[in-house]
Amino acid sequence: MPLYSNLSQMNFELSKEQRSFVDRVDAACTSIRQYEEKCYLEEKFNDRIVPVFGKIGMLGCPISKKYGGLGYDMLTYALAIERIGEEGSSLRTFFSAHTSIGQLVLQGWASEEQKKEYLPDTASGKSVMAFALTEPAAGSDPTSMAMKFEKKGDHFVLKGKKHWIGNGTFAGVMTTYAKDADSGRISAFIVDRDSPGLRTEEMKNKMGLLTVKNAEIYFDNCIVPRKKLLGKLGQGLNIAYSALIDGRLSVAAGAVGVMKDCLSECMAHAKSREQHGSPLAKKQLIQEHIARIAVGIESSRWLVYRAAMARQKLHEYVEGLKQEEREWQTRLDRNNKEYSTLRNKADNLAAIAKFHASNASFEAANRSVQIFGSFGYLKTARVARHFLDSRATIIYEGANEVLELKIASQVLGDSYRTY
Ligand SMILES: Cc1cc2nc3c(=O)[nH]c(=O)nc-3n(C[C@H](O)[C@H](O)[C@H](O)COP(=O)(O)OP(=O)(O)OC[C@H]3O[C@@H](n4cnc5c(N)ncnc54)[C@H](O)[C@@H]3O)c2cc1C
User: Fold this and answer.
1) pLDDT at 329 over 80
2) Ligand 1 mean position to 395 CA, how many Å?
3) H or E stretch including 204?
4) Looking at the annotation, which residues are catalytic?
5) Rounded distance, CA 176 to CA 131, Å?
């Protein structure tokens, strides 16, 4: 089975340049740590993300240099996201929405003209991106979406509502997905914030992820010029599903960071806090918690790195195609075996990594709160915020039940697909 072969090709050596980039991400994270914590308690967007991370190029880390990014590979990007995840899934979610399910969708599917229009501005931080797929009645099953579009002269008219859209309150540009009012086929669109008929409202009362802003987005006969169609008519679902490969990878990478932070917080606390005459770290039952968190980190990180490498191979294959092959045909062409093998592998490894790492990080955060006792039951504690935030990672970018079904159908074969 191709998914489990090629272990010999795993090589996680980073170049000096890549290592120094991850060091710059580390310094940026450290510099905003206190402010991020303050913003979390005040439930406000961290307005230092864009200037601080923009300065080191993190807002366009895996985007080609040709379009203003740093042009790093997916493993380097995953390592950067892992470091950001240590500061919390709230901060990491900003990057997942902006880059993983934002810019990378354009890098993979947009025309040359569209890439030039959007990627440099988003890589510099002049504009932030969002991905608007989910609707109140269409979550795990995007095929049931109600949002419609009609073709009218030189533009499309979009009607419908999306919800839970990360960065949606302020993103300058987003991709969204709607059904042809006639044929029912789903297409993808690039929508500018100032499009006539577009309105956003912040979603309130979230349980966690308090520095990232989610929006309800209303498309009230929203006018989208024809040239903002992403890919070809009818390719919307394929585009959305390919975005989710990157989204899952970023959630999984961030989850590794969450667990690392949990471990470091717990070690410091368990070694300094004494009860019954000795440090908590000397108690065997506390050591069980510590050991399980460590196992979560190691078991998740290798899944993430392997999935990142599979995703990179897919990227390199697509980049190596001739322009006319790239012009949307190859990706739908089931006869292109090489493409579909690479895509399936990247898709499945990302699903496995996300499923495992999100569950492991929630478990790690839960164990961490337990080690901290009452001190972990305050939102001012890092472990408490990890607990609240990592709960979301089991729901978004493909709820874990649906990912389990997806993984099972990959193993059993498509005829056993249950969703
Ligand atoms: C914090 C947060 C941020 C988000 N950000 C974005 C964003 O930026 N852009 C965006 O488009 N969306 C976003 N979402 C939406 C997210 O992708 C959806 O919440 C997710 O896909 C699940 O959909 P749902 O919430 O409608 O749950 P449902 O689809 O109603 O699922 C509810 C439960 O039923 C289970 N279930 C569903 N179908 C099956 C099945 N066939 N078999 C077994 N179990 C099943 C699910 O696993 C889940 O446990 C975000 C959500 C959250 C919570």
Assistant:
1) no
2) 5
3) none
4) 397
5) 6
